[in-house]
Design brief:
Layout lengths: L2 E3 H8 L3 H10 L9 E3 H10 L9 H5 L13 E2 L3 E6 L5 H12 L14 E6 L2 E6 L3 H10 L7 E7 L6 H13 L3 E6 L8 H10 L13 E3 L8 H15 L2 E2 L6 E10 L3 E10 L2 E2 L3 E4 L2 E9 L5 E2 L1 E2 L4 E7 L8 E5 L2 H24 L3 H7 L1
Parallel strand pairs: 4-6, 4-7, 7-8, 8-9
Antiparallel strand pairs: 1-2, 3-10, 5-6, 11-12, 11-19, 12-18, 13-17, 14-15, 14-19, 15-16, 15-18
The structure holds guanosine-5'-diphosphate and magnesium ion (MG).
C-alpha cells in the first residue's frame, strides 16, 4: 500500500510538519514526524490544508527522466570508456597505474593525480577514459542496474600464469554485456613468460586473438617495465574507431555513479561518469534515491571544472545524501522534481525493506501502518 511519512508530506506541501501533526491530532491520531500515514489519510490532510492532490505512480515519476537515445545528427565522437579486468595478481592495478603515469605530461604539477574512480589519458591527441574502481564488483553492480558503463574491456592475462578462473569470469562478463575485449598479455618481462600458451588457452574459451586468425586485438605488455603501453593505447583507439562511439554533448547530462562516499569535510561526494550531455555546476541532479545541486566538480587531476562532457569522470559535490555505486544519474529541471523523484524512490526502497522484514507478520504490519 502507498504510504508517506509526515515529514515527506509536509515537505511536499511546503508546510510545517508540526501543523500536519496538529491536524492529525484533531482527528484523533497521535503521530510523530517520522511516522508513516497511508495515501488516503495523506490526501485528506493535504486537501484540508488547501492543496490539490495528485497521486503519482512510478511511471509518472520516472517519465522523461532519461531522455531518448541521441539522434545521429546531434552526436559527436566521444572518448572510449575502458575497464580493466582479469585474474587476481595478473597486474590490473599495475597496468592502470602504469598507463596513468606514462601519460602524465612532464612538469604537470609533479604528476599529482586524484583518485576519483576513473581517469583520462591522451594518446595522439585523443582521450581514453579508464575506470579504475575495482573491476568485477563495479562492473557487476552496474550491470545489475541495467547500466552499461564500459565500451571496451582490457583482459589482463599474466604470461607466466595463463587463463585462470577470474579470467574466464571476465570473459563471460564482457560477453554478456556485449563489450569487445582487448587482450593484454602482461608480465612479458618475466623469463617464464609464455604468451603462446595464453593464446591457446584463450582459444579454448572462444577468444580468438589476431595472431591466431581471429579479430580480438592483443598486445604483449609489461606493466612493471612500461613496455608496449603505447601499443595498448593504440589498440584501444583502433577498437573504439570500429565502435564509432558518439554522444550528444548539447543536452542535459546523464551518467553513472562509479564511486560515492561521505566525506567528513565535504559531505557526500560522488564520482560520476558522464555518458551523454554536459554536466554543469548548478545543475540539479538525481542519482538513485539521492538528489542535489552540483556545488562544485573536480576532474581526475583535482582541478575544479565548470562542465563535464560525454565520457568525462568528475567528482561531484552537492548531493544531499550519498548515492550508491552503479546508480544512474540524470539532470532534472528543478529541486522540486529532484525531491519528488528521490522521495518516491526512497519510499519504494523502504517499503521493500519493510515488506521483507515483516515477513509472515504482513497482516499485522498492514494494520499498524
Ligand atoms: P591485480 O591483482 O591484478 O591488480 O595485480 P597487481 O597489479 O596488484 O600485481 C600483482 C603482482 O604482480 C604485483 O607484485 C606486481 O608488482 C606484479 N606485476 C604486475 N605487473 C607486472 C609485470 O608486468 N611484470 C612483473 N614481473 N610483475 C608484475
Ligand atoms: Mg588490483
Amino acid at each position: 500500500p502507498e504510504a508517506i511519512t509526515i515529514q515527506e508530506l509536509a515537505n511536499r506541501m511546503a508546510e510545517r510538519a508540526v501543523d500536519v501533526i496538529k491536524l492529525l491530532m484533531k482527528q484523533g491520531q497521535m503521530l510523530k514526524i517520522n511516522d508513516v500515514i497511508d495515501a488516503d489519510t495523506a490526501e485528506l490532510i493535504a486537501t484540508e490544508m488547501g492543496h490539490t492532490v495528485k497521486r503519482v505512480s512510478e511511471a509518472d515519476v520516472e517519465e522523461g527522466l532519461y531522455a531518448e537515445p541521441d539522434h545521429d545528427d546531434d552526436t559527436t565522437p566521444r572518448p572510449p570508456i575502458v575497464t580493466v579486468m582479469g585474474h587476481v595478481d595478473h597486474g590490473k592495478t599495475s597496468l592502470l597505474d602504469a598507463l596513468r603515469h606514462a601519460n602524465v605530461v612532464s612538469g604537470e604539477a609533479g604528476g599529482i593525480t586524484q583518485h576519483i574512480g576513473a581517469y583520462q589519458v591522451e594518446q595522439n591527441g585523443q582521450k581514453i577514459t579508464f575506470i579504475d574502481t575495482p573491476g568485477h564488483a563495479a562492473f557487476t553492480a552496474m550491470r545489475a542496474r541495467g547500466a552499461k558503463a564500459t565500451d571496451i574491456v582490457i583482459l589482463v592475462v599474466a604470461a607466466d600464469d595463463g587463463v585462470m578462473p577470474q579470467t574466464i569470469e571476465a570473459i563471460s562478463h564482457a560477453r554478456a554485456a556485449g563489450v569487445p575485449i582487448i587482450v593484454a598479455i602482461n608480465k612479458m618481462d618475466k623469463p617464464s613468460a609464455n604468451p603462446d600458451h595464453v593464446r591457446t588457452e584463450l582459444l579454448r574459451h572462444e577468444v580468438v586473438v589476431e595472431s591466431m586468425g581471429g579479430d580480438t586485438l592483443e598486445v604483449e605488455v609489461s606493466a612493471l617495465k612500461g613496455t608496449n603501453l603505447d601499443k595498448l593505447l593504440e589498440a584501444i583507439l583502433l577498437q573504439s574507431e570500429v565502435l564509432e562511439l558518439k554522444a550528444n554533448p548539447d543536452r542535459s547530462a546523464e551518467g553513472i555513479v562509479i564511486e560515492a562516499k561521505l566525506d567528513k569535510g565535504r559531505g557526500p561526494v560522488a564520482s560520476v561518469l558522464v555518458q551523454r550531455g554536459t554536466l554543469k555546476v548548478g545543475d540539479i541532479v538525481v542519482a538513485g534515491s539521492e538528489w542535489g545541486r552540483v556545488r562544485a566538480m573536480l576532474n581526475d587531476k583535482g582541478e575544479q571544472v565548470q562542465e563535464a562532457g560525454p565520457s568525462t569522470p568528475v567528482e561531484v559535490l552537492g548531493f544531499q545524501g550519498t548515492p550508491d555505486a552503479g546508480d544512474r544519474v540524470a539532470v532534472v529541471e528543478n529541486e522540486a522534481r529532484g525531491r519528488e523523484i528521490t522521495e518516491y524512490r526512497q519510499r519504494v526502497k523502504r517499503e521493500t525493506l519493510h515488506k521483507s522484514a515483516a515477513g509472515s507478520r504482513g497482516s499485522l504490519e498492514q494494520m499498524m501502518t
